Amino acid sequence: IISEDQYLEKALALKAAFWCHSTRIRRCNQTRECICQYFWHRKCFVFDQPAPKNDLERLEELQDKDINPEFQQQVEKFCGHIWENAPPKTIPGGRIITGSLLGKLAETYVDTIRSREVPCLESAVLALAQTVNAAAVKEAVKFYQDLMEQRVKLPMETVEELLDLHSQCQRETLELFQKRAFEEDICSFQADLTVGDPQPSQECPPHLGHHHPLSFRGK
């Protein structure tokens, strides 16, 4: 009896190429070599059939109690290994990709392939960055507006007091944007996230009975 990992390594062992089957064997060995070259750390998991043969066609409709218990245990073992040992997925630059972002990245790849173009990681990341950065701008605008509504206590004594509060909220907003945004194409989106100095309206009394809306816009 051999372990699951030993079974995998045995399956990846290169086969001797006899002259009559050399082309087919070389093709199979090329696949094995690629797996060994690109996956240095390998682990094998063997799964039993999740349900009886007659139920496989409607597998998504089955309840948990109808799924093979041994299969469920193997799935838990597999998921536990992933959570404990697999590092988070990143893109060039070290940016961690969440599940939703990975899904969008996959959609970009699929759309590119369907359009009969050659998929490129850099182009896919740039397209993803534009989507993420646009959402980060909207989130930052909302964050700034909420901060000002929470912190502005009317009436205020001087314009300088309002300007100081505006500057503080602006700094916190830009920090939030930079944490949410991708480095790729960040400058063009940050340029759209402009904050103007608040000015009291002509009707505003000396003690700033109300404040003028700030110039804060996003895409």
UniProtKB/TrEMBL annotation:
<feature type="domain" description="Guanylate-binding protein N-terminal">
    <location>
        <begin position="2"/>
        <end position="87"/>
    </location>
</feature>
<feature type="domain" description="Guanylate-binding protein/Atlastin C-terminal">
    <location>
        <begin position="93"/>
        <end position="194"/>
    </location>
</feature>
<feature type="compositionally biased region" description="Basic residues">
    <location>
        <begin position="208"/>
        <end position="219"/>
    </location>
</feature>
<keyword id="KW-0378">Hydrolase</keyword>
<dbReference type="Pfam" id="PF02263">
    <property type="entry name" value="GBP"/>
</dbReference>
<dbReference type="GO" id="GO:0005525">
    <property type="term" value="F:GTP binding"/>
</dbReference>
<dbReference type="InterPro" id="IPR015894">
    <property type="entry name" value="Guanylate-bd_N"/>
</dbReference>
<dbReference type="GO" id="GO:0003924">
    <property type="term" value="F:GTPase activity"/>
</dbReference>
<dbReference type="Pfam" id="PF02841">
    <property type="entry name" value="GBP_C"/>
</dbReference>
<protein>
    <submittedName>
        <fullName>Uncharacterized protein</fullName>
    </submittedName>
</protein>
<dbReference type="InterPro" id="IPR036543">
    <property type="entry name" value="Guanylate-bd_C_sf"/>
</dbReference>
<feature type="region of interest" description="Disordered">
    <location>
        <begin position="198"/>
        <end position="219"/>
    </location>
</feature>
<dbReference type="InterPro" id="IPR027417">
    <property type="entry name" value="P-loop_NTPase"/>
</dbReference>
<dbReference type="InterPro" id="IPR003191">
    <property type="entry name" value="Guanylate-bd/ATL_C"/>
</dbReference>
